[in-house]
Amino acid sequence: MDKELNTLLADIKRDLTAYLNIKFRLIKLETYEKSGFISSLMIYSLVVLLLIFFAFLFLCLALGFYIGELLGSLGTGMVLVAMIYLLTLCILLSLRKKLLNWLTNMFVEQINQSDDERNEEVVGS
């Protein structure tokens, strides 16, 4: 009886150790997957933001030249566009907390959406 108990406890210990090792490995792989997704999302967002930035920059330059031509002074046109930039900056600074919350929620939603899609693929398989 004592020998059976020792054997049973040894089996339980071995199975528990194997389970914990597999669970740890699974958590590690899920972490790699999430960090890869977050990295790709950040790189994609950075590329899109850079393209939007340059498009906006050239549109503002064109607007500055256009306003300068209308007013007869290139400098005045550029100053007016710079004032538009400053006004936009002031608005963004005043809405900083709301914008940060919105961006954080959007980012977390993207990550959760990715998890939901991955879970649906596993369940659907």
Question: What is the alpha-carbon Rg in Å?
Answer: 29 Å
Q: What composes the largest sheet?
A: none
Average pLDDT: 88
Total number of helical segments?
Answer: 3
Terminus-to-terminus distance: 46 Å
SSE pattern, N- to C-terminal: HHH
What percentage of residues falls in helices of 4 or more residues?
Answer: over 70%
Q: Which percent band covers the strand fraction?
A: under 5%
Please state the structural category: mainly alpha
The unreliable regions are: none
Number of strands: 0
Shape type: rod-shaped
List the helices and strands and how they pair.
Layout: H1 2-71, H2 74-94, H3 96-124
Helix pairs in contact: 1-2
In brief:
With 125 residues, the chain is mostly helical.
Q: Your description of this structure?
A:
The chain has 125 residues and is an all-alpha fold. The chain has three helices and no strands. The protein has helices spanning 2-71, 74-94, 96-124. Helix 1 (2-71) runs antiparallel to helix 2. The longest helix is centred in the N-terminal third of the chain and has 70 residues, at 2-71. The radius of gyration is 29 Å and the shape is rod-shaped. The mean pLDDT is 88.
